[in-house]
Every structure is written in structure tokens, then in C-alpha cells.
Specification:
The longest helix has about 35 residues. A two-stranded antiparallel ribbon has the order 1-2. Helices cover about 70% and strands about 0% of the residues. With about 375 residues, it is an all-alpha fold. Helix 2 runs antiparallel to helix 13, helix 6 runs parallel beside helix 15 and helix 11 packs across helix 13.
Length: about 375
């Protein structure tokens, strides 16, 4: 029975995830100066364990159930996003429910629910009409479906997570036979909207982050401090790193927050270019496995879900690593499977479980064929 359960598991995908989590734990162990009950390293060990259990559980749930119950899942995620706006702010953002034993970030759950919702809607539209995705009313419905959680997340405020929603939505639409003119129109609207947002809509702290992105030296001891320290940490790591527990920026407290937003800088400083490049290669492997599962999926719904998950991971990997290197503005988004955080780790492990279930069904079809 156990052998039958594990038959069809995508072990390459699981191996990549476990390797990323292992490097994360090593980096956190060093950044936290060893194991101590209650520190980020000790708690991360718990979240990895819980996440792995959730991955196994979700790998057992037929993905077709998500398609059947996408509406109540979507509604629950929206209600949670509304409710969190009335909680006490943490670090200036109302993004978490304090459950005593952990802080739950509903936007993490919402990412999964919205990916499933978009996949279900696109599948239904295409099943009815092969060109249905190009009808304005259908595109508007999908836009509303995505904009509701995006607006609620912006109100928290959490601009990085909101951008993740837009990224995976665009990718899912792109592979759904949408007329490319709509993509071009969307890009044009974004180009027009950017200066308007910058000068008239974005709050001052968001504008400051953009200014610092273009020139961190305008406020080296203030708003530009984090990115300058991150770049210094990455640059000082060299080929093999300064050694665990030996990174200047990491150990002397100059790199902040080192266990979440800037965990990649910790890895680059203390483990060096070889390990940090290996981490990037592992993420490339993760993205390619998502694409492969999408291409070989049993049906359109599961294919859309897999590519949506890929889009989610793609955004977080590019944005987090990009911001630590100064290539992209700082948005405070975590690095999947590596940054400390319970909600994010559990969300990532859950979607891996969904991918495994899709892959298992794909393998059954291949074997029968």
C-alpha cells in the first residue's frame, strides 16, 4: 500500500525542495548563532517539518476537488483578507492574524485559492468556446477575480505580494491562447500608469524605495542602508564565502532582516558564489519541473494550476534575489523555501503537494498508455 502511494511521485521536485530547505536551515543556523529554543532557526525546523507533512497530505487530495470547490475556497480567502485589515498592525502592516502559537498571513492562502480560481475559470471558458478567453466579458471577469484580492493586499499594505498575483495571472492568461494584443494593451497601460502611480498614488515610503533603487547613496544611513549592506555582503563572499558564522555583515548585525528578506545575502556572504549559484540553479530546476508538470498534465485545469504555481515561484525568486543584489526595488518578499516564515513555508509546501498530485495522475496516464 505504501509503495502504491509513493508510485508516481516526482522525486526530482521533492529533492530540489529538500535541498533548498536544507541550505536555508544551514544559513539560518549560522545567522542565528546556533540552535536556541524560540529563535528563527529552531522555529524554521518546525515549519519545515509541518510543511513537509502538509505536502504529503495535499499530494493525497485529488486536484479535481479544487476545481469543484474553487468558489467557496475563493470566498473564504477574500473574507480572511478583509478581516486581517482590522487587526493590529505589525511593522506598519495589517497582514497577519496573531494565533498565539504563530502568525498567519492570509495572503499566502489567497495565492493558492486565486491560482485555482483562475485555472477553473479559464478551463470552463475554453471548454465552452475555444476562443472564449478573448471575449471582453470573460477577461473582465478574470480581472475582477484577481483585482479584489490585489486591492485588499495593497490596503495592508503589501505591494510585493500584490505584484505576485499580477505576475502569475499574466502568465496563466499567456498560455491560455489569449490574443497577444491584449498582452500588449496591458503592457501599454502599465507603462502609462507607472508615472501616475509614482507621482500621485503611491505613499511616500513606496516612493522612497523606488528612489533608493535608482540611487542607494542618496540616503546611505537611512533608506538606502539595507540594500548597500546586502550588496556589500554578497560582494565580500567571494568564491567560497567567509565561512559559517564569519560573515561581517551577517554576524555584526549590519544586514537586516537577515533571516527573511536578505537570507540570500547571508548565503552569498558566508557560503560564497559556488553555493549561492547552486541555489539559483536549484530554483531554475524547480521552475523547469513546474513547466514540465504543466506540459504533461492530464487536463487543462491541472496544467493551468501548475503554470500558475510556476509564475508565483518565478516572481518571488526574481524579486527577492534581484532586490538583494540591487537589481530590483526592495519589496520585502521572501525567498521560497529559504526565508524564515511559517505561513510562506506552509504555502510553498502545499503547492508542491498539489504539483505532486498532478504529476502522480500524469504518471498513471503514461503507464496506462
Amino acid at each position: 500500500m505504501i509503495k502504491r502511494f509513493f508510485k508516481g511521485f516526482d522525486y526530482k521536485l521533492i529533492g530540489i525542495v529538500l535541498l533548498l530547505a536544507a541550505v536555508s536551515c544551514v544559513a539560518l543556523y549560522s545567522a542565528c548563532n546556533g540552535y536556541e529554543p524560540g529563535n528563527d532557526f529552531s522555529k524554521q525546523l518546525i515549519w519545515v517539518g509541518i510543511g513537509f507533512a502538509l505536502m504529503i497530505i495535499t499530494s493525497m487530495i485529488p486536484y479535481t476537488l479544487y476545481q469543484k470547490f474553487w468558489i467557496p475556497m475563493y470566498i473564504v480567502s477574500i473574507l480572511l483578507l478583509v478581516g486581517v485589515l482590522f487587526t493590529n498592525p505589525i511593522n506598519g502592516a495589517s497582514s497577519w492574524y496573531n494565533l498565539q502559537f504563530m502568525s498567519l498571513q492570509p495572503s499566502e492562502l489567497a495565492k493558492i485559492c486565486v491560482i485555482i480560481a483562475i485555472a477553473a475559470v479559464i478551463t470552463k471558458i475554453n471548454d465552452r468556446d475555444s476562443n472564449g478567453i478573448n471575449k471582453i466579458k470573460n477577461l473582465l471577469f478574470i480581472a475582477v477575480l484577481v483585482l479584489i484580492p490585489v486591492v485588499l493586499i495593497v490596503l495592508q499594505p503589501d505591494y510585493g505580494t500584490a505584484m505576485a498575483f499580477i505576475t502569475f495571472t499574466v502568465i496563466m492568461l499567456f498560455i491560455s491562447n489569449i490574443d497577444k494584443k491584449y498582452i500588449l494593451i496591458g503592457l501599454g497601460l502599465v507603462i502609462v500608469a507607472l508615472p501616475i502611480l509614482y507621482f500621485f498614488v503611491l505613499p511616500q515610503h513606496a516612493v522612497d524605495r523606488i528612489d533608493v533603487y535608482f540611487d542607494p547613496t542618496i540616503d546611505p544611513l537611512g533608506k538606502g542602508y539595507n540594500i548597500l549592506q546586502s550588496k556589500l555582503a554578497i560582494g565580500s563572499g567571494g568564491l567560497t564565502g567567509m565561512g559559517l558564522g564569519e560573515g561581517n555583515q551577517t554576524q555584526l548585525g549590519y544586514l537586516y532582516p537577515k533571516t527573511t528578506d536578505f537570507i540570500f545575502a547571508v548565503i552569498a556572504e558566508e557560503m560564497g558564489f559556488i553555493i549561492s549559484a547552486g541555489v539559483i540553479l536549484l530554483f531554475c530546476g524547480l521552475l523547469l519541473r513546474c513547466v514540465y508538470i504543466s506540459k504533461t498534465a492530464k487536463d487543462n485545469f491541472s496544467s493551468q494550476v501548475a503554470i500558475g504555481i510556476m509564475g508565483m515561484f518565478l516572481f518571488y525568486v526574481l524579486e527577492n534575489i534581484g532586490m538583494t543584489m540591487g537589481l530590483l526595488p526592495i519589496t520585502g518578499v521572501p525567498l521560497p523555501f529559504m526565508s524564515y516564515g511559517g505561513s510562506n513555508m506552509m504555502c510553498n509546501m502545499i503547492v508542491i503537494g498539489i504539483l505532486i498530485n498532478i504529476a502522480k495522475n500524469r504518471e498513471k496516464i503514461v503507464l496506462l498508455g
